[in-house]
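notes to self, project folder thing:

trying the whole complex as one job this time. last attempt i did each chain seperately and stitching them together was a nightmare. two parts in total, labels are on each line so i dont mix them up again. if this works i'll redo the older ones the same way
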Amino acid sequence: MSTTIAAPPDKRVLITKPRTSDRIFRGVVTAFGISALLILTLIGVFLSVRGIQTFHSQGWHFLTNFKWEVVQNDDGTATSNLGIGAMLLGTILISIVALLIGVPLSIAMALFLTFYAPAKLKTFLVSVVDLMAAFPSVLFGLWGFFVLMPMVTYWAKLIYKYFNWIPVFSAPEPFFERSPFTAGVVLAIMIIPIVTSVSREVFAQTPLDRIQAAYALGATKWGVIKSVVFPFGSSGVVGGAMLGLGRAFGETVAVFTVLNIVFRGNWHVLYGAGGNVASLIILKWGESTGDETTALLAAGFVLFILTLVVNLSANFIVRRSVKSGK
Amino acid sequence: MTQINQGDDNSTNEGESMTTETVPSSLAGVAASRSSSRKPGTLPMGAGLEARGVHAWFNKHLALRDVSLDFGFGTVTALIGPSGCGKSTFIRTMNRMHEFIPGAAMAGEVLLDGKDIYAAGTDVTKIRLQIGMVFQKPNPFPSMTIGENVLSGIKLAQLKVDNKDDLLEECLVRAGLWSEVKDRLSAHGGSLSGGQQQRLCIARSLAVKPRVLLMDEPCSALDPGSTLRIEDTIGELAKTMTIIIVTHNMQQAARVSDYTAFFLSDGGPGQMVEVGPTSEIFSRPRDKRTENYVSGRFG
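result (full assembly):
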């Protein structure tokens, strides 16, 4: 006679029956919780539905076309040749400038706040940096226009004078005001708060035992930062920089204030011509009709997708770096 | 200041032999065999590390009161005592790691070759090169390979080494890890087992050629097998350097150390109750509290 091992019984279904009040509360909270996602989806759907006509008429060329023209024909119809190529190029150019200037400053600031600042100064500075994040961007724009621009123009001239042999720093004509460089500097200041606060958070999570290990080996403070803090926090800083990039992509008013918006593929960072997708929308919105309006909505959809992708990947990177503890 | 006197070894009187019986014979036996295998008296005393009237505070709380201890060159000293008695705090004052804790303060002197390491103008990083430390939890740098971990101190302190490969091998051999990792030096430090990681940390602290090695409960996170490996390593290392080890494991203190210092806190700041050759502390301690502790009646 062979003994068979009895199969384990079926798993029981565990049910808890919530009270009615609990069910109602849960329903309300869930509804509001989902509404955020719903609103985001609705915006995306709205933009794509309204803008889709542009993609039909202009095709993928919409993304690479540097022209934005509406020609009135004699018979009352209009022929439009619309593209956001110049604006996309400008967006990328400005964002790169903003990141190149803003990220190192933010890292330095985060290091100071985490490892050097006395406790009281730290608390104060952290709230100042957070306040900076909450500042209306038009204020940055105005300040950038009146205070920063003259200075930045001067720097631009200097850079042009000594580095114009580097293609990016050359210019078709010596016109340096309201350039992508200027807009990038203003944006750099605007992304400092978010990049600083994310970097500060990951730096502060550096395991104490690794820091002590480095000190016990005769490391200087800089040695500890270089060998322990940076390897640990690098992906967090990258994530923070991408959140900054998300902001730089979408920034409208500040860029609109300081930038000379021109429909022309300009990659000369010091030359006073450029634009970005967001500022295009605000520039053309008031006067647009028909095809142009649709095209602006399509541009909005492109911006929506860009921002979504950048922010989602930033969040992913930040979360992974915090979790893995590497 | 407590001087350790080798001459006391043979002086036994009635009272002390009475206490011998109250101590578990195993511990005393281990300590005796350990002590007889080494003759610390032949090593130059006083050429190592000296603590004089060390006090330590955390903010207003006095955690350690007036500890004076001599650590002769080439000796292994175990610091034992129940939790919260200040032994970890004390060992951290010996290479100025104590001051990393916000609000930490100290008083007294710690002399390395007669020079106060707390003197104004001292380069702390140089002090820590001479007085290395191994921590309770193995803490290799996870972003570095095994080889890079061992040599990280060289890089951090910007020391010049003629042959890095030789140094790498030497340190891993001395830490008792070479045979296990020699084929995978480029693997990451985090890929090793806990015990291997701790020996990697020992190898890492050896690379900068310290003269004193502080070990803060180096085996408390490890399994018995790894613990034994590390104890063997300690025995090897003691031939060329001074070792101070904090341990909760009295068996371990008996196995590895030449001298044992017993710390205790009676609710107030921790103090050193007694220090002496390990065999004596475990067989005929002078203080009743030490006897109670080593015989397992409390703590």
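what i see at first glance: Residues 1-23, 35-46 of chain B have pLDDT under 50 and may be disordered.
need to look closer tmrw
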